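Quick start: read one record
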Amino acid sequence: MQPCTPPAEAKTPQDVLVVGGGIIGLVTAWRTAQRGLSVAVVDPEPGGGAAQVAAGMLAAVTELHHGEQTLLGLNLASARRYPDFAAELAEASGREVGDAGDAGGLGYRACGTLAVALDSDDRAHLRELHALQRRSGLESEWLSGRECRRLEPMLAPGVRGGLRVDGDHQIDPRRLAAALLVACERAGVVFHRAWAERLSVVRDRARGVVLADGTELHAAQVVLAAGSLSGRLAGVPDDVLPPVRPVKGQVLRLRVPKPYAPFLSRTVRAVVRGSHVYLVPRENGELVVGATSEELGWDTTVTAGGVYELLRDAHELVPGITELPLTETRAGLRPGSPDNAPLLGPTRLPGLQLATGHYRNGVLLAPLTGDVMAHCLTTGELPAEALAFTPARFTAPPPPIPAQSFTEQPA
């Protein structure tokens, strides 16, 4: 008689186990490993997920919405860190900061953004946004339609006015994720390319996760950074489970034929008949057009209607776009929270921290999130700039975290 196969043994315990290998999970792992803790990431496809769909706009100013002034402060703080963050990540991953053609690079461009209006209603909306920006102490310049077309000659003749924001830039999220993956590996981060099925809780403390094949992974601290999936991990107590929902976004990619003509020199965005549309030009000739916003649960189907609406609105904005080859259509899921802001830091369950719910600002908030989480994981203290974004705003305040919990090994 053959002996029964024994259950999978627990892997070597880590100081920190990050559940989720998207941009937020990777930047958390990299920054934490840099501070000397042993870190592992659990994800079947690290570097995938929303990073493969996002456009990568670093738009703290033009993304401002009424009622989100607190989030604005966080976005601006992260935007200020981007130049140094990109330079450090490029060095850590052996890549260049800019485009570097098809060979690599982060695709970071300090190109600015132009937000335009196509009719009187859109113009009024943009004027209100400009007033809000000025009241918030932000730098933006109102331009006439003629001035907008002087900046971007491909714009439609009907453009009625716009906002020039030189401080809103862009980065290529796919290249950012790839660079973070390399930086993590070089920093000693261990990767478990599998699904996390369940959180392990021992004596009222998070102690790791159980993988789909039954393997147990132990850690002194667990960070749940699984994007839109963060609210679906089994074993997380109901009063701790993050209130994160999926928000579908469809995105198109087109190609400007070589030699790359100055089709657009900067990110251009607009509201067309109430729908938001943006065009993000890469230096390598790619043009990203997005994005729909659909509350459809876990559906990631690319629809004819979604593609049509994006092309229709983009065509009204830049008529010449319909002459470009369409190279890709994708749909992804943004991790939305009740107030559209991230959940950062410790939960009521000792040993479990959150880095999720970034909604439309995950790429923008990557530098700050990495720093915040690494600081919290190594010191037990959440930096002041993140105090308004703790999970506690949706639950009762978390209990104090004993200092020894950051170095002790799981039982």
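The chain has two domains: 14-52+175-244+339-406, 113-166+246-336.
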